[in-house]
């Protein structure tokens, strides 16, 4: 093995590059799938948490909704207030010891990261929904929309735009936090790096390579998500059209950056 730092790095990439590649692939699969599932869970929990309760509602409805909201609040607080590594150990080994449920490592990995992400996304979605002006909800109900229709067609499209940065942030966090799954035997990037370092006693070089790979993954994802956010912002200029063909009021409505700076 070469004696200099860069020589050892090149040697590791040549001899153990496949291990790093497989670890990085597993990391991205877990992060992407779990973030998607976590977002679905978060949207469901966040929507339920924001269901309004009025004095005119039946007592049974208030009672059932109150119990459901309490359970969801406990779920959110527990998984936001405990580390993912402890959750992984508790769920993977505890489910087998206490309930006799023998999870596969991969199922446990997706399950653990998904419900952890769902807890964080629930609060993000709840905040995103509450950030929309109440007049939007009142206007939707005034034209006869139900709560479900109001959420689906009016509130959530606007809330999604507001919470997109947090969705991207959760994906980047999950790419890094998959390393805790090494405690249950998942061969992701950290586990693969630890194996290489332990076998060849090249800890500094091995984890230097891992850090570069982690940075490349997170930087690429952040740039893609930022580009997506800009696409969701839409154009700066819009053509305002009226239904009255006799009124010449349609035209180009522009938010000039120069005018904004002057103001």
Automatic annotation (TrEMBL):
Chief localization: membrane
Transmembrane segments: 20-47, 88-113, 171-191, 203-225
Superkingdom of the source species: Bacteria
Keywords: Amino-acid transport, Cell membrane, Membrane, Transmembrane, Transmembrane helix, Transport
Domain ABC transmembrane type-1: 24-225
Membrane topology reported for the UniProt record: Multi-pass membrane protein
Compartments, as annotated in UniProt: Cell membrane
Family: Belongs to the binding-protein-dependent transport system permease family. HisMQ subfamily.
Record NCBIfam families: HEQRo_perm_3TM (TIGR01726)
Name by which UniProt lists this protein: Amino acid ABC transporter permease
UniProt organism field: Muricoprocola aceti
